[in-house]
Write a structure and sequence with these properties.
Elements lengths: L1 E4 L5 H12 L4 E4 L11 H4 L9 E4 L2 E4 L1 H11 L10 H29 L9 H25 L12 H13 L8 H10 L3 H6 L6
Parallel strand pairs: 1-2
Antiparallel strand pairs: 1-3, 3-4
Helix pairs in contact: 1-3, 1-6, 4-5, 4-6, 5-7, 6-7
């Protein structure tokens, strides 16, 4: 059985948990991170020198970086319906997974740390507004993509890319600031909310 290290209120841990439910994959989980055991403990650093969650342990394999973990699990445990091997189809899925991990994720950091985490190091209101504008701009890119597909982010079928992006949509809605009208994003959110695993790990009130 695989083991997952990380707290359930982490968006990156919830990526893995959502996928495990989609794959009906059994796992053991240990609480690590804010409010629990520190990932800066030596035992954890030996598994992940970055001191970040989640970490996956599958027999002799130790893996960190949430998007790498979900790719591995889809490959290793029968997730070809979510992560097809056909090169062009997979490339589009990877494109949107990487977009979430780089452009979208980086856009929200300052605003989230100020508005949700109340971080004393993120109190520059100009930087907060700059982050909000960047975040909204990224969501408008998603809005345009969903207008094209009229379904899911990489096409007509639910895919691995919808897991990190679906969680990101939840985070956008829950963070309090003025947002542009994005009807396709709203329909996407409602569509994902028909999935039991998303109601458990995505649309569950956690930011």
């Amino acid at each position: 059985m695989i083991k997952l290290l990380g707290r359930t209120d982490s968006i990156n841990v919830r990526k893995v948990l959502w996928l495990c439910d989609e794959l009906d994959l059994a796992y053991q989980r240990e609480d690590w991170g804010r409010g629990f055991r520190s990932p800066k403990e030596q035992a954890f650093l030996q598994l992940n020198p970055n001191a970040t969650i989640p970490v996956l342990i599958d027999e002799e394999l130790t893996l960190w970086q949430s998007n790498s973990i979900i790719r591995y699990l889809a490959n290793a445990y029968g997730g070809s319906a979510l992560y097809p091997t056909e090169p062009k189809t997979r490339a589009l899925i990877d494109q949107w997974i990487d977009w979430q991990g780089i452009e979208l994720n980086n856009s929200w950091v300052y605003a989230l740390m100020h508005l949700i985490r109340n971080s004393p190091e993120h109190q520059d209101l100009k930087e907060v507004e700059k982050s909000i504008q960047a975040w909204n701009s990224m969501m408008l890119i998603l809005e345009n993509q969903l207008a094209n597909t009229q379904a899911y982010v990489a096409g007509q079928q639910f895919s691995l890319a919808d897991i990190p992006i679906g969680l990101s949509v939840q985070r956008w809605y829950l963070t309090p600031f003025e947002k542009p009208d994005c009807p396709n994003v709203k329909r996407y959110y409602d569509r994902l909310s028909q999935r039991e695993a998303y109601l458990k790990w995505g649309n569950n009130g956690q930011n």
